[in-house]
Specification:
Helices cover 28% and strands 25% of the residues. It has 180 residues and is α/β, with parallel strands linked by helices. The chain has a single domain (4-175), classed as YbaK protein. Strands 1, 2, 3, 4, 5, 6, 7, 8 and 9 form a 9-stranded mixed beta sheet that branches. Strand 3 (56-64) and strand 4 (71-77) form a beta hairpin.
Amino acid sequence: MELYKGRPETNEGRLEREIRVYDFLDDHGIEYWRTDHAPADTMEVCYEIDAVLGATICKNLFLCNRQKTQFYLLMMPGDKPFKTKEITSQIGSARLSFASPEDMEKYLDIRPGAVSVMGLMNDHENHVQLLVDEDVMKGEYLGCHPCVCTSSLKIRTEDIFGKFLEAVHHDMIKVTLTGE
C-alpha cells in the first residue's frame, strides 16, 4: 500500500459515491491523503491501513433507537470496546441498537464495512446525529473511508471537526467511553 496526496488520477473503476467524496473535499479546500487496498471490512485490516496512514483509524458505528426515529453515527477509537450502556445516558436515548443496512444506505449512502464520517455529506436533512468519543479528537489526523471500503483517507482532525462538519451542516456531541 502507498499513500498518495489527493484524489486518484482517474475515476475509472471508482464508485460514484467515492468520487463525490473527493469532489466535496476538493471543493471545500480540505487536504487529504489516500491509500487504496483490498476491502477493509474488519478492524484487523484497518490496523494495517492505520500503519500506512499514520492516523487514528476510527471504529464507526451506525446506531438507532428502538423506534428507529433517531439515528447516530458514533466515532470511537478502533481498539476501544463499545458498551451500549455507556452512551445511552450521555445522549438521553435508551435502547440503542445497530441500524439496518437499508437505513445506512438511505441516510448516508454507505454500505456496511464502509461506514465513515464522510457519509454525513449525503445526509442533507440531518437525520443522523454525530457522536464522537473524546479520545478520537486527540490525534492530529484521522483515518476514514471515502464511503467505500477499498480506499482510506488521512485528514487533519481539526479539518474534520471544523471545515467538514461546517460544510455538511452537522454538529457533534462529544461523549466519553471507557469500554468498561
